[in-house]
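Chapter summary example.
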Amino acid sequence: MLRNISAFRAATVMCAASLLSWSTTGCGVKLSSDSGPKVDVAVDAKAQVQALVRTMFPDLSEDELAAITGDISLSDLLALRDELDAMRKEVVALSRGLFDTSQERVDERKTALAPHNDGYPEGAAVLGQVCTYDSAAGRGEIRLSGAFKGKEPLMLTADQLSLSIDGAKQAFALDCLAGGPSVDIVFLIDITGSMANVIGAVRNSVTSFVDRIAASGVQGTLSVVTFQDSVGVNRTFQEPAPAQNYERSPFHTPVSLADTAAIDGLRAFVNRLEANRGADAPENLAGAIDFARNSVIGYDSSGAPNVIGDNHEDPVGTSAFPALASDRQVFVVLTDITFHGDDRNAGNSSLLAPFVPRDAADILATLRKSGTTVHVSDPSWVDASTEPTSAKVDADYWATHTGGLGEDVVSGYSLLDLELVVVADQSGLTDIALDRVIETSCTLGFAASLSANAKVELTLAVDGKLSTSLLGVQRY
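The structure predicted for these 476 residues follows.
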């Protein structure tokens, strides 16, 4: 009898230890029906694992629960629980701080922008513009992002635009995303601890955002790339970390905007993201952009781009991001901090060697050649340098050099400020007008010979009123 009691206690202690701080559901001890005073202390391991996973990740569906628990051992799960438990405690303070600051900033923003039509143009205007020139092909391209007439989206037509180079009028072709070329929309999401509220807002608004985009006639794909100081470490937060204990940075490959089931799967992916670690700054946005655009993580030992999947020097746990195949690409950055610049001093000390990104100029060159536009949603109070040779660079750098929105231009604010996403309830992505910015984006292509000092003028005519922009030329 004493043996029976001791065995029962041992099994009970084992069960309690395995579910400490989470749940005691699923633990059981069965008395043996065999003859003799034996106690079967075997606990249903699968039930234990499922119970523990359920308490750790309550938003999982039954199918997701079954898929995860089929591949993870109890010992790995206990280690994962301990890891996430510690990180989640840090996240509470980090995300709360960002939310409180954001709420204050939104209140300030409302007052500051009241005389400026809430940050929208007073008349008709295109908010993001950039001109690039392929000198070898003799082809120019002007990317236009976010066309508005007041607060209403403005669907541009060719007869509203005129282009001149050094005073001579030029022929051009206009392609707009609403009903035009296909586009790959890639969300680049900072998943450090303070971003917990942002992930929630993105999760809640993905479906409504896609519905709005699809209704506008935009066709293409949606995908997600996450980053901390790592990028491309495609381990979910329901799996053990790689042996090197790199930060996780899972991604979701592109799915069609027209595929409802696939979009639901992407939304479930966002729903399972964790925001953790990252108490230091800056983060690896440059690496995330290079990974999403080129499936590249830094340089290899020969100084060439390290294309993931083609190189034996790939960081452990990383896997390739598929090539983007639509006619256009639009990246949307969601971050609350600066990114690692090219200066590799103590300010970049948190960046592990396998994840040091290529120089910003090298990455930017690939964005220009591919016609990729980057929109940046970061806090209006993050106003660091936009000089890529510094250690910490404002994420606005990518928007200003690709014709995207995000630069703080009206009283220190932009339409895409992150604080609007943080405090949103269900519609964070549409609260920052992201759907309208994308659906009114166009590309104007032309053939010409452009000198380094060419004078490129673009004129917009709406309701009899003209506005002319003088565009600098980015050559490659």
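To summarize the output: The chain has three domains: 2-63, 120-176+447-475, 183-439.
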